[in-house]
Amino acid sequence: MGSNEPHVRELAVNECWALLRTESVGRLAVWVDDHPDIFPLNYAVDHGTIVFRSGSGTKVSAALSDAPVALEVDGYETSLREAWSVVIKGRAEGIQEIDELMDTVDLPLFPWQGGAKNLFIRLVPTLVTGRRFPVADPTMWQTPFSNVRRSPSE
User: Fold this and answer.
1) For residue range 97-121, what is the model confidence (pLDDT) as tens digits?
2) Domains in the chain, number
3) Does any domain span residue 96?
4) What is the DSSP secondary-structure string of 50-115?
5) Which of the four pLDDT bands, split at 50, 70 and 90, describes residue 54?
6) Rounded to whole angstroms, how far apart are CA atoms 21 and 108?
7) Is 66's pLDDT higher than 80?
8) CA-based Rg of the chain, rounded to a whole angstrom?
9) Mean pLDDT calculated for residue range 13-20
Protein backbone atom coordinates (compact mmCIF):
# COMPACT_ATOMS: atom_id res chain seq x y z
CA MET A 1 0.00 0.00 0.00
CA GLY A 2 1.40 3.38 -0.98
CA SER A 3 1.83 6.23 1.48
CA ASN A 4 -1.04 8.20 -0.09
CA GLU A 5 -3.55 5.34 0.20
CA PRO A 6 -5.98 5.45 3.13
CA HIS A 7 -5.63 2.86 5.84
CA VAL A 8 -8.36 0.21 5.71
CA ARG A 9 -8.61 -1.82 8.88
CA GLU A 10 -10.22 -5.24 8.93
CA LEU A 11 -12.48 -5.60 11.96
CA ALA A 12 -12.53 -8.47 14.42
CA VAL A 13 -15.83 -10.34 14.69
CA ASN A 14 -16.60 -8.84 18.11
CA GLU A 15 -16.05 -5.34 16.69
CA CYS A 16 -18.48 -6.15 13.88
CA TRP A 17 -21.18 -7.21 16.34
CA ALA A 18 -20.62 -4.09 18.45
CA LEU A 19 -21.11 -1.90 15.36
CA LEU A 20 -24.19 -3.86 14.28
CA ARG A 21 -25.76 -3.05 17.65
CA THR A 22 -25.39 0.69 16.94
CA GLU A 23 -27.60 0.57 13.83
CA SER A 24 -31.01 -0.84 12.99
CA VAL A 25 -31.23 -0.72 9.17
CA GLY A 26 -29.36 -2.88 6.70
CA ARG A 27 -29.70 -4.34 3.21
CA LEU A 28 -30.55 -7.99 2.80
CA ALA A 29 -29.22 -9.66 -0.36
CA VAL A 30 -31.11 -12.74 -1.54
CA TRP A 31 -31.29 -14.89 -4.65
CA VAL A 32 -34.64 -14.57 -6.47
CA ASP A 33 -35.22 -17.04 -9.32
CA ASP A 34 -32.24 -16.32 -11.60
CA HIS A 35 -30.90 -13.06 -10.15
CA PRO A 36 -29.82 -11.38 -6.92
CA ASP A 37 -32.06 -8.83 -5.24
CA ILE A 38 -31.57 -6.45 -2.32
CA PHE A 39 -34.10 -5.30 0.27
CA PRO A 40 -33.70 -2.71 3.03
CA LEU A 41 -34.82 -3.98 6.41
CA ASN A 42 -34.92 -3.09 10.07
CA TYR A 43 -33.11 -5.62 12.22
CA ALA A 44 -32.05 -6.38 15.77
CA VAL A 45 -29.04 -8.29 17.05
CA ASP A 46 -30.02 -11.34 19.09
CA HIS A 47 -27.41 -13.63 20.64
CA GLY A 48 -24.99 -13.71 17.70
CA THR A 49 -27.73 -13.67 15.06
CA ILE A 50 -29.78 -11.04 13.25
CA VAL A 51 -33.58 -11.02 13.55
CA PHE A 52 -36.03 -9.13 11.37
CA ARG A 53 -39.78 -9.18 10.95
CA SER A 54 -41.63 -9.00 7.68
CA GLY A 55 -44.79 -9.87 5.83
CA SER A 56 -44.85 -12.68 3.33
CA GLY A 57 -43.50 -11.88 -0.12
CA THR A 58 -40.45 -12.09 -2.35
CA LYS A 59 -37.95 -11.11 0.35
CA VAL A 60 -39.11 -13.77 2.81
CA SER A 61 -39.58 -16.49 0.19
CA ALA A 62 -36.09 -15.93 -1.18
CA ALA A 63 -34.53 -15.63 2.28
CA LEU A 64 -36.06 -18.92 3.40
CA SER A 65 -35.01 -20.81 0.27
CA ASP A 66 -31.94 -23.02 0.26
CA ALA A 67 -29.80 -20.19 -1.15
CA PRO A 68 -27.49 -18.33 1.25
CA VAL A 69 -28.22 -14.71 2.14
CA ALA A 70 -26.10 -11.70 3.05
CA LEU A 71 -26.76 -8.60 5.12
CA GLU A 72 -24.73 -5.40 4.82
CA VAL A 73 -24.82 -2.59 7.36
CA ASP A 74 -22.80 0.61 7.05
CA GLY A 75 -22.13 3.54 9.31
CA TYR A 76 -20.27 6.82 9.48
CA GLU A 77 -18.66 8.36 12.54
CA THR A 78 -18.59 12.09 11.93
CA SER A 79 -16.19 12.94 14.75
CA LEU A 80 -13.60 10.49 13.40
CA ARG A 81 -14.41 11.04 9.69
CA GLU A 82 -14.45 7.25 9.41
CA ALA A 83 -16.87 4.91 7.72
CA TRP A 84 -17.41 1.25 8.45
CA SER A 85 -19.09 -1.65 6.72
CA VAL A 86 -20.10 -5.04 8.13
CA VAL A 87 -21.27 -7.99 6.02
CA ILE A 88 -22.90 -11.09 7.41
CA LYS A 89 -23.25 -14.15 5.22
CA GLY A 90 -25.29 -17.15 6.22
CA ARG A 91 -28.71 -18.72 6.08
CA ALA A 92 -32.11 -17.50 7.10
CA GLU A 93 -34.65 -19.51 9.04
CA GLY A 94 -38.18 -18.80 10.13
CA ILE A 95 -38.79 -18.45 13.85
CA GLN A 96 -41.79 -20.62 14.65
CA GLU A 97 -41.24 -22.30 18.01
CA ILE A 98 -43.37 -20.56 20.62
CA ASP A 99 -40.50 -20.15 23.12
CA GLU A 100 -38.25 -18.64 20.47
CA LEU A 101 -41.06 -16.39 19.22
CA MET A 102 -41.69 -15.13 22.75
CA ASP A 103 -37.98 -14.28 23.09
CA THR A 104 -37.98 -12.26 19.87
CA VAL A 105 -41.27 -10.37 20.31
CA ASP A 106 -39.61 -7.89 22.68
CA LEU A 107 -36.67 -7.14 20.39
CA PRO A 108 -36.60 -3.51 19.16
CA LEU A 109 -37.89 -4.32 15.67
CA PHE A 110 -39.66 -1.33 14.17
CA PRO A 111 -40.32 -1.74 10.43
CA TRP A 112 -40.68 1.51 8.50
CA GLN A 113 -43.63 0.30 6.44
CA GLY A 114 -47.03 -0.43 7.92
CA GLY A 115 -48.99 -3.60 7.29
CA ALA A 116 -48.81 -7.12 8.60
CA LYS A 117 -45.27 -8.00 9.69
CA ASN A 118 -46.07 -11.19 11.54
CA LEU A 119 -43.15 -13.30 10.30
CA PHE A 120 -39.93 -13.35 12.32
CA ILE A 121 -36.79 -14.41 10.46
CA ARG A 122 -33.39 -15.18 11.95
CA LEU A 123 -30.17 -14.81 9.94
CA VAL A 124 -27.67 -17.35 11.28
CA PRO A 125 -24.18 -16.28 10.22
CA THR A 126 -21.54 -18.51 8.73
CA LEU A 127 -19.20 -15.55 8.13
CA VAL A 128 -19.00 -12.08 9.68
CA THR A 129 -16.58 -9.55 8.19
CA GLY A 130 -16.10 -5.83 8.50
CA ARG A 131 -13.80 -2.97 7.77
CA ARG A 132 -13.24 0.60 8.89
CA PHE A 133 -11.66 3.30 6.77
CA PRO A 134 -11.12 7.06 6.72
CA VAL A 135 -13.43 9.01 4.44
CA ALA A 136 -11.61 10.95 1.74
CA ASP A 137 -11.92 14.71 1.57
CA PRO A 138 -14.35 15.31 -1.32
CA THR A 139 -12.14 18.05 -2.75
CA MET A 140 -9.54 15.44 -3.72
CA TRP A 141 -11.90 14.25 -6.44
CA GLN A 142 -12.49 17.64 -7.99
CA THR A 143 -10.91 18.47 -11.30
CA PRO A 144 -10.61 21.88 -12.97
CA PHE A 145 -13.72 20.92 -14.94
CA SER A 146 -15.82 19.85 -11.92
CA ASN A 147 -17.43 23.26 -11.58
CA VAL A 148 -18.21 23.67 -15.28
CA ARG A 149 -21.87 22.99 -15.94
CA ARG A 150 -22.93 21.43 -19.20
CA SER A 151 -25.93 22.60 -21.11
CA PRO A 152 -28.85 20.10 -21.25
CA SER A 153 -28.16 19.44 -24.93
CA GLU A 154 -24.65 18.09 -24.29
Assistant:
1) 666 655 666 666 666 666 666 788 9
2) 1
3) yes
4) EEEEE-SSHHHHHHTSSS-EEEEEEEEETTTTEEEEEEEEEEEEE--SHHHHHHHHTS----SS-S
5) confident
6) 11
7) yes
8) 19
9) 97
> 2 or 50, which is more confident?
50
Distance of CA 138 to the CA centre of its chain: 24
Comparing CA positions, the residue from 41, 42, 90, 92 lying closest to residue 64 is 92
- With respect to residue 114, please indicate whether it lies within any of the assigned structural domains: yes
The whole-angstrom separation of Cα 118 and Cα 59 is 14
- Residue 110: give its domain's CATH number: 2.30.110.10
Angle ∠(46,49,52) on CA atoms, nearest 5: 75
Q: Is residue 13 helix, strand or coil?
A: helix
Flag whether 51 is in a domain: yes
| φ, ψ dihedrals at 20, nearest 5° | -60, -30
Is residue 140 situated within a structural domain?
Answer: no
Highest mean pLDDT among 59-63, 92-96, 126-130: 126-130
- The Cα–Cα gap between 122 and 72 comes to 15
Domain residues for 55?
9-132
